[in-house]
Amino acid sequence: MGRFAHAEYPKSRTRRLITNVRVRESSDDTFVATSNFVVYRMRMHTTETYVGRYEHTLVHRDGVMKIRERRAILDMEALRPHGKVGFLL
Fold first, then answer.
1. pLDDT tens digits, residue range 60-70?
2. Residue 33 included in any domain
3. Residue-range definition of the domain harbouring residue 70
């Protein structure tokens, strides 16, 4: 119930920008796509910025496209002061 509990109180406000979406490989039903992202997290009068690239493996079956795998690769060399990244990406 404290201000710094895992559930976040107040909750963070986030904004995610995704750009440069490209299909890199394709076969009959599988596609590999990449994109760039920026995630902004605003909380308690601070703004944290995370920049990187997504790699998606998509599968097309029965008329539906589904994500098989998504990998987020951060451009940052170290997570300090951003040690809490997992739930944002």
1. 988 999 999 99
2. yes
3. 13-74
